[in-house]
Amino acid sequence: MEYSHTKLVSFLLLFLILFLSSGAEARRQPNFRPTKLFVFGDSYVDTGNTMKVDSSAWKDPYGESFPGQPAGRFSDGRVLTDYIAKYLGVKSPVPYQLRESKPEHVKYGMNFAFGGTGVFNTSSQYPNMTIQIDFFEQLIKNNVYTKTDLTPSVALVSVAGNDYSYYLLTNGSAEGFPSFLASVVNQTKINLIRIYELGVKKIIVDGLQPLGCLPEVTLTSSFQQCNSTFNALVGIHNSLLNEAVAQLNQQAKDNSTFIVLDLYDSFMSVLNHTSSTSGHKLKPCCVGLSSEFSCGFVDDDNVKQYDVCDVPKSSFFWDLVHPTQAGWHAVYNKLRKTTALKQLY
């Protein structure tokens, strides 16, 4: 009887040890499973918020690769939002402007991004990021999304350079540029904090892509070379952004994560290994017949004033600013190999 009691105690102790160690292991395992994606920003992530009457994204040949017709994406097909959603295992979120016509998709999150916008006002008539977050906050107040909905969600924030384009367009001084850079990053940080305080605990923000390699810049060199001055400014922006995000992660008191997607390195990595049928890896697939025209432009006689390459997937850039679907897919494949997206799980 004494022997059986000893065996029983030993068994219980062994069970307790195994149970506790199993529990510790379980606690170490990631258990975050995103169910929704909320998107803020500009044309790099917009999937249909701009109006059809004044946006090239709703005109041919945009959307010819996906979904087969213009659908409000600034590309021949999918954009970064679609690939991030794919990575998370959720459906690409419905554009804010289409939420009432597609109520069944609201459960997957929402896209508040508008092409042409920045963290501050730009030449675009569409809402800047502060107002986009206002829209999000109002939906929460209206109980469209609850705290339970937001806890397992991810936010994607895109700042692709429209603030800087507008600064230069409005004759901003070279002397004032460093200060403006700092203000853009600081406002971005404020936006990230606000999204976090509204309840989203996993937030991705894009680093700036190599602006000096965009076709609208390389056009002056016949798409032969990137502008090193522009790319140096991008380096400053990205350095400040990484510092700001590191501070946010240090200050976070829960399991929140702020993640920077390194678009600069991913773009450059793809471009350095891209061979184009045109011989110019920086040349866009769709380009205006002259500097007066852009991709999708049709004159009063309904005559196209642009050329489109035969095989969009052979080009990295779609138009003067945006990648092709193939370009975005290649960038996404680079990002998947980094530690950034893995932090979401």
Structural overview:
This protein has 345 residues and is α/β, with parallel strands linked by helices. It has a single domain (33-274, 325-344), classed as Rossmann fold, CATH 3.40.50.1110. It is built from ten helices and eight strands. The strands form two sheets. Strands 2-3-1-4-5-6 form a six-stranded parallel beta sheet, with helices on both faces. A two-stranded antiparallel ribbon has the order 7-8. It starts with a helix and ends in a 9-residue tail after the last helix.
Describe the secondary-structure layout.
Layout: H1 2-28, E1 36-40, H2 80-88, E2 94-95, E3 109-111, H3 129-141, H4 147-150, E4 153-157, H5 162-169, H6 177-197, E5 202-206, H7 215-218, H8 228-251, E6 257-261, H9 263-271, E7 286-288, E8 306-308, H10 325-336
Parallel strand pairs: 1-3, 1-4, 2-3, 4-5, 5-6
Antiparallel strand pairs: 7-8
Helix pairs in contact: 2-10, 6-8, 9-10
Key descriptive features of the protein:
345 residues; alpha/beta; Rossmann fold; six-stranded parallel sheet; two-stranded antiparallel sheet; 10 helices; disordered N terminus
Query: What is the count of DSSP helices, taking H or I runs of 4+ residues?
Result: 10
Rough outline: globular
Output the radius of gyration: 23 Å
Number of DSSP E strands: 8
Give the C-level CATH assignment: Alpha Beta
Average pLDDT metric? 89
* Cα separation of the termini: 51 Å
CATH topology description: Rossmann fold
Main beta sheet: 6 strands, parallel
Helix content: 25-40%
Given as residue ranges, the uncertain stretches (5+ residues, pLDDT < 50) are 1-29
The fraction of residues assigned to DSSP E strands is 5-15%
Number of structural units classed as domains? 1
Name the helix and strand elements from N-terminus to C-terminus, one letter apiece: HEHEEHHEHHEHHEHEEH
* Estimated structural class: alpha/beta
The side-by-side strand order for the widest beta sheet comes to 2-3-1-4-5-6
